[in-house]
Amino acid sequence: MKQFLISTLMVVIVFSCSDSDSDSNSPTDPTGSDSESNFLMVGDNTYVLAQGLLENYGAMAETGAVNLDLTLISEGIEVDWLNQTATGSGQVFYLEMFTSTEGFLDNGVYAYNNSLEATSWDYGEYASNWTNNCDDTCFIDINQGVVSVDRDGLNYTIEFQGFTVNDEAVSLHYSGTLTYI
After folding, report:
1. What DSSP designation does 168 have?
2. How do the domains of the chain map onto residue ranges?
3. Predicted model pTM
4. Beta bridge partners of 95
5. How far apart are CA 150 and CA 107, in angstroms?
6. Cβ pair 71, 16 in contact under 8 A
7. Which residues contact 35 (CB under 8 A, 6 or more apart)?
8. Residues in contact with 77: Cβ distance below 8 Å, sequence separation at least 6, in sequence order
9. Residue 43, Cα to own-chain centre: how many angstroms?
10. What percentage of the chain has pLDDT greater than the value 70?
11. Is the pLDDT of residue 82 over 50?
12. 169-180 and 108-112: which strand pairing?
């Protein structure tokens, strides 16, 4: 399952990265994010998040909740859209989340558990030094925490507070649109 998720992250990265030279507040920026305030903090290290993606895996047979995976990506990763490859280096944050409706995350607080119920998440990880040569060793699992989601139309404000399997504190703030696939 871990290999499947890593492969999925690679696909997610391919579909969700932008050119790091773009001004995130310019009218041509598709992310609508404010890169100055969007961050991922792990331990004492803080990284700027540039954009996000929601990937729909459909409704869970057990609960009816919709599996929307959230991936947030930093600057420094460039994508070749024609060949669907990513290059460069940067940070990746990923959560497997469950919501009540196709197409968007519900507003509210999402707790970590394996219930597969709406407003929960059951798997998370991050990579602080992602490159296109990453394998499982690039990612550290996140096994506890709370996600707060506030959506207004297409704009999201997402906050996360939690810990890795190594008891390292993880927090993030992301405000902007999320690409939906």
Report:
1. -
2. 2-18+28-180
3. 0.77
4. 70, 124
5. 5
6. yes
7. 24, 25, 48, 49, 50, 75
8. 13, 17, 20, 86, 87, 88, 89, 90, 130
9. 18
10. 76
11. yes
12. unpaired
- At residue 151, does pLDDT exceed 70? yes
CB 163 within 8 A of CB 170: yes
- CA 33, CA 166: separation in Å to the nearest integer? 30
Distance, in Å, from the CA atom of 83 to the CA atom of 87, rounded to the nearest integer, reads 11
Q: Which residue has the tokens 């290999």?
A: 3
Predicted confidence (pLDDT) per residue in 100-125, tens digit: 999 899 999 999 998 999 999 999 99
> What is the per-residue pLDDT across 25-42, written as a single tens digit (0 to 9) for each?
322 233 344 445 899 999
DSSP assignments along 52-92, one per residue: EEEEEEEE-TTT--EEEEEEEEETTEEEETTTTEEEEEEEE
Q: What percent of the chain has pLDDT over 90?
A: 58
Task: Give the end-to-end CA distance of the chain in Å, rounded to a whole number.
Answer: 21
